[in-house]
Amino acid sequence: MVTRRELTIGEIRELAAAVPDPEMPMLTLDDLGILRDVRRDASGTVTVTITPTYSGCPALDAIGEDIRGCLAERGETAVEVRTRLSPPWSTDWISAEGRRKLAEHGIAPPPERGATTGGTFVPLSVRCPNCGSPRTRELSRFGATACRAIHVCAACGEPFDHVKPL
Amino acid sequence: MPEETGAQTAVVDTAVAAYVLRLGDDTLIASHRLAELVASAPQLEEDVAVANISLDLLGQARSLLSYAGRTEEQLTGVLRTEDDLAYLRSENQFVNCRLVELPNTDFAHTVVRQLLFSGFVFELYSELADSTDETVAGIAGKAVKEVSYHRDHAARWTARLGDGTEESARRMEAALDTAWPYVAELFTDDDVTRTVAEAGVGVNPSKLRPAWDAFVDRTLQSARLERPRVPPITGLAGMSGRDGVHTEAFGYLVAEMQHLHRSHPGASW
Ligand SMILES: [Zn+2]
């Protein structure tokens, strides 16, 4: 019988951080910035805290399952995944690496600084991820997932998704 | 704990449970009305938009109803989950404002309802983000960012339809006349709101009216529409949605929303 060594918090964090997002699988939870906290209590139970991108994010349950699954493979079975809303997630939390991966997959990343909650949206020029042209326009503010809008490029004619600022 | 403080806490907790239940019901019913339009909106992009907005609202409703249930449990010792509250109450136990239950008569009615409602919750959540209650503040701080998009979406449609064709303007005017009598209910203070406002947990909705008025007037002006001159409508014996007195259309909504859960208790997929 093989007895496994208990994983360190650092190792658990690394494993959880590398879990792909179910809706944008080119991004890890770390790229997306939704992994909040990893800890182990005295009884050995691991608690992983994540935050939803949007209140109604339907992927949240799947993400919890994926985290538990990937930790179970490494022998960590007493794992609780919790959700925390505050402070609210912002697209500012998407890492530089995450932004690069989005663009590489044809999705325009969010602007560096997110929208305010002041209610007025400053029109931002979104660069086409296909040809790089700034001559694009918004087709619809709501897209395939809660965090995406649909834009179209006037230069190359391609429609594309944009992770809108939140 | 001294007895008096205990009694006062119970009064506040009772009001908080009632208050958060109202917020949860408003959001749940607004979500359900929008969900009815998924796959039958006037254009494909709008199908996607109403689905997204409905889903945001449903997520907010789940957090609010769960919290209302947990707060109530502190007082009664009995926990009602978000599902119990959404699926197992009868029509007259819902305490949502009547505005959100108004039917999707045509797309103009949907746009107007969303404009008036998201304008209201935007101001509300902006205030509640600073609530002394951590959970309420957390839910509101998250929701306000989403609602900001919903409000903007409704304002754009209002401008497009109000300042569109003769037909679209006529429909928007009719929709405004239908919805406007239910506006006053949004801003009515009562014992529940006064108690939660005093505790710093919630707000008296009358406080939100000036900012809402400014937003709605600005939007209607941009759409070349006028604020309707129709009086508020009260329910039976002066009661309203907050008392569980609803419009005729609401019973059908509740039946539709609950029938799966009631027919197949515990169903999952
Ligand atoms: Zn292009």
From TrEMBL, chain B:
InterPro entries: Aromatic_CoA_ox/epox, Ferritin-like, Ferritin-like_SF, PaaA_PaaC, PaaC. It comes from the Bacteria. GO terms for biological process: phenylacetate catabolic process. One of its GO terms (cellular component) is cytosol. Coiled coil: none annotated. NCBIfam families: PA_CoA_Oxy3. PANTHER family: 1,2-PHENYLACETYL-COA EPOXIDASE, SUBUNIT C, PHENYLACETIC ACID DEGRADATION PROTEIN PAA. This is Phenylacetate-CoA oxygenase subunit PaaI. The gene is paaI.
